[in-house]
Amino acid sequence: MIMTLVAVWMMITSMNAQRLTNIQAEARFITDKMVVELGLSSAQRNSILNINLNYLNGIRSYRDIDAYGWHYRNKQLKRMMTARQWKRFKNSYYFYRPIGWQNHVYVHHIYTKYPKHNWGHDKRRPRPECSYGRPGWPGGTHVTYGPGKPCKHHKHDKKWKHDKKKWKHDRDWDDDDDDDDDD
C-alpha cells in the first residue's frame, strides 16, 4: 500500500515537473520573439516573461484561454509597453492571443509565424504546433504543413478522421445536422 502511494506521488511529481518545463519553454519562446519583433528592453523582457509564464501556467481548460488570466496579462503588458509597442503587439495575433482552441485541440499561434521551433529529431517532418492535452503537457501527434496553416491532424489519427460527432462546446453545434457533407 505504501509503495503504491509512493509510486503515485512520484508520477504526479514527474508530470508536474514536465508540465512546468514545457510551459517555461513556451513562455520563453514567445517572450524572445516579442523582444525581437517589438523591440523590448531587457527589463521589459524579464517582466513580460513572468507575465507570459503566469498566463500559460493558469490555463487548465479551453475555457481559461480567454478568461480572467488573458485579460490580466494584456492589462499588465499594456501598462509595461509603449504605445507603439502595444499597437504592434495587438496587431500580431500570435502574441495577442498566443493560445487558441480549434477542433478540440489547443493551438499555439506562435508556430504559425515560426513553425520550425517545434521540430523534433527528424528535420524532414515538423512536429506538432498544437496538442491534445493542456498547454505545457506532452500531447498527441499532429503534422505542420507550413506557415499560416496551423494544426492539421495526422492522416492516421483515427479519432479525428472518423469522429463526426459534434461536441457540446462547439460553437457550430446544431441539433438538425444530419447530413454527412461536412467534408
Task: Please tell me about this protein's structure.
With 183 residues, the protein is mostly helical. The protein has one domain. It is built from seven helices and five strands. It has helices at 2-38, 42-57, 68-80, 83-91, 93-96, 110-113, 158-162; strands at residues 99-102, 105-108, 130-131, 142-143, 152-153. The strands form two sheets. It has a three-stranded antiparallel β-sheet with strand order 1-2-3. Strands 4-5 form a two-stranded antiparallel sheet. Strand 1 (99-102) and strand 2 form a beta hairpin. Helix 1 (2-38) crosses helix 2. It is globular and about 60 Å long.
What attributes characterize this protein structure?
183 residues; mainly alpha; two-stranded antiparallel ribbon; globular
The largest sheet, given as strand count, sense and whether it forms a barrel, is: 3 strands, antiparallel
Strand order of the largest sheet: 1-2-3
Number of strands: 5
Give the C-alpha Rg.
19 Å
Question: Which structural class is indicated by helix and strand composition?
Answer: mainly alpha
Low-confidence stretches: 14-18, 121-134, 136-179
**What percentage of the residues does DSSP assign to strands (E)?**
5-15%
Number of domains: 1
Mean pLDDT: 70
Instruction: Please trace the helix and strand order, writing H or E for each element.
Output: HHHHHEEHEEEH
**Quaternary organization:** single chain
Termini, distance in Å?
A: 51 Å
User: Helical proportion?
Assistant: 40-55%
Shape: globular
Q: What's the tally of helices?
A: 7
Biased composition (Acidic residues): 173-183
Biased composition (Basic residues): 150-168
Region (Disordered): 138-183
